[in-house]
Amino acid sequence: HSMPLPPGHIAAIHAVRRRREAAKASRPKPSGAVGGDRAEHVSSSDKRQGALRKVFKKYDTNNTGKLEEDQIRNLLTDMDDTTPVGTEPTEEELAFILKVADASGDGCLHFYEVEYALRAWAVYTKRRQQMEDKLIEFDKSGTGTLSWEELRTLLVDLNNGSPVDSMEVDWVMAEADIFGDGQIHKTELVMAIAAWYSHVEKKQNSKMCTI
């Protein structure tokens, strides 16, 4: 885990988010070209739908119908099997999960927001080292972050060579700028890439009738 943010930064992030809400583009519709690893990840996540409501009820200890900050922290702690038992997410990690999953902007996670939050968290925790290594590999300029073109090349690589459109690259760049100040660092970029990796459009299996 990275170093925690100073106190008050989660509130600052929420304030930035509210100011940017009107101008901020919604999460782009993922392209139809989704690499096999990404599609498989979402497929396996879908199989856990039946257990999701039980998980939500377990952590919604005050029965408000939404998970508050401490409850989200407990949930993420328990769902991370890549660190020693009981290792809490940093303030930075908690803030980022809220940033990408809290669609209502109220600083909590409602049931319909938890699935994506857990999907993004699972990708981030399990693939964090891989994505950090990829960032180093594609950081041709050696700046510790990525240019727009470098990021696009990395995303295509993670997408098993399938194309990634410019809106998706823009979205990752915007999400990585966690404070809205134009400064993008490695930890934030890895989180944003994990959120993008998790965001795969669910496709309905079409069935054709034959005569």
Automatic annotation (TrEMBL):
<dbReference type="InterPro" id="IPR018247">
    <property type="entry name" value="EF_Hand_1_Ca_BS"/>
</dbReference>
<feature type="domain" description="EF-hand">
    <location>
        <begin position="126"/>
        <end position="161"/>
    </location>
</feature>
<feature type="domain" description="EF-hand">
    <location>
        <begin position="47"/>
        <end position="82"/>
    </location>
</feature>
<dbReference type="GO" id="GO:0005509">
    <property type="term" value="F:calcium ion binding"/>
</dbReference>
<dbReference type="Pfam" id="PF13499">
    <property type="entry name" value="EF-hand_7"/>
</dbReference>
<feature type="domain" description="EF-hand">
    <location>
        <begin position="89"/>
        <end position="124"/>
    </location>
</feature>
<dbReference type="InterPro" id="IPR002048">
    <property type="entry name" value="EF_hand_dom"/>
</dbReference>
<feature type="region of interest" description="Disordered">
    <location>
        <begin position="17"/>
        <end position="48"/>
    </location>
</feature>
<protein>
    <recommendedName>
        <fullName>EF-hand domain-containing protein</fullName>
    </recommendedName>
</protein>
<feature type="compositionally biased region" description="Basic and acidic residues">
    <location>
        <begin position="37"/>
        <end position="48"/>
    </location>
</feature>
<keyword id="KW-0677">Repeat</keyword>
<dbReference type="InterPro" id="IPR050145">
    <property type="entry name" value="Centrin_CML-like"/>
</dbReference>
<dbReference type="InterPro" id="IPR011992">
    <property type="entry name" value="EF-hand-dom_pair"/>
</dbReference>
<keyword id="KW-0106">Calcium</keyword>
